Amino acid sequence: MGFFALLIAIALLFNRPGDWHPILTGLPLFQIAIIACLASSWGKCTNYLRSVSAEKTPVTICVLFLFGMVLVSSLANPTSSFEITIDFLKACVLYLLAVSLVDSPPKVSTFLNGIAISIFFVGLLMVLDYHTSLFGTVRPEGGGQEFRAEALGGKNFDANDTSALLVLAIIIFLANAIDAQSIVMRVLWIVTMAIACHGMQLANSRAGFIALLIGIGSYLWIRWGNKGLKWGVLLVPLGAAVIATDRMVDLSAIKTGTGQSRLQFWSIGLSLFFNNPIVGVGPGEYENQIGKACHNSFIQAYAELGCLGGALFVVAFFSSVKLSYLTRRKYTNDELADTQVPSAIFIIPALIIAYITSISTLNQVYACHTYLILGLSTIAASVFGLFDGEAQTPYRASLIASLGKTTCVFIVMMYVICLVFVRW
């Protein structure tokens, strides 16, 4: 019951009925699904929380403390919107439900496919709207105006957010097509992947295109090593040539276009952090104070939540990559395993790497789907036995030391990038 409710909640997160028909507007269906899921899974969630530790569940520790920092920063900055704190609470609850309920290999597969299919319908509706004006979108005539489709009019996700999500679906569909046992299923997964790719074309996001290349390349390398990387070098550019638009491959934007403006927003975010290093300017206050979005979730976390909040967000993703990689390495080298290695072992780290690439130019610190992706590594480590037998710790140093080192390295790196590339 709880797992089924979780899948419904995920479907409602990405496809809100209120955006399809006005009569459904305002109905809190996602909140109802989350509450129902939590009520039916309370025991599993509390049992999971009792087992949390910095050694085995570092991502969960980071997420829990990050919520504390969001709350502290919100209280310390009365002008910030408390609604963002409430929204972030929903994201944390969704994370907790995912890591508590997805507790077996079949559920991992179903969970990944549930995410991919939910995102697919976002892309499908974009494609239908573009070709049939299903939701009233008017295409520019004459080809003189750049067209960028948004998910259901942008009420849920703008073009860049939509592209970041479609990248995740494409990677999952690609893996499913490779592993399909029948021609029918392989064709089905290829068709869904093609539709999602067309949705990416309509979103026309440069960052999404880069994330797709990095995500697919990561998947091929994680799965087949150097052999997969060689095939990727040969085949990925061919696929990219089919998907790519002029905007996606326009590298001049880093000097004069949107790429340069985003680098300037990064620099402003660093300035806000240096002026408010303890608790930041408050959740959502970057956009309120500057009038534009930060366009880098990691810098946004430092600017709005301060040193500890930013470090927790960055370390959560670093831990997620580390956990998923250790899980893949342990499982494939386990001589006692007598079953086929689940595809999820290879998909999950690729998804996390692709999403990190995407949110490096987006604002997704408080988004629910961010914490769904973060939870994948914790799920994989638990389900696929990373800590069975001899415990492996993602860090040689303590989590606190990792937070400090991460802050120093990240801030210096971003400062140097801004110093070199920003043109005022």
Automatic annotation (TrEMBL):
InterPro entries referenced in this protein's UniProt entry, alphabetically: O-antigen_ligase-rel_domated (IPR007016), WaaL-like (IPR051533)
Domain O-antigen ligase-related: 193-314
Keywords: Ligase, Membrane, Transmembrane, Transmembrane helix
Protein's cellular compartments: Membrane
Keyword Membrane: yes
TM region positions: 28-45, 57-76, 82-102, 109-128, 164-191, 203-222, 228-245, 301-321, 341-359, 366-387, 399-422
Membrane topology according to the record: Multi-pass membrane protein
Keyword flag Lyase: no
Pfam family, one: Wzy_C
GO cellular component: membrane
Molecular-function GO term, any one: ligase activity
Annotated PANTHER family: LIPOPOLYSACCHARIDE BIOSYNTHESIS PROTEIN PA4999-RELATED, TEICHURONIC ACID BIOSYNTHESIS PROTEIN TUAE
Protein name, entry field: O-Antigen ligase
Species this chain originates from: Bythopirellula goksoeyrii
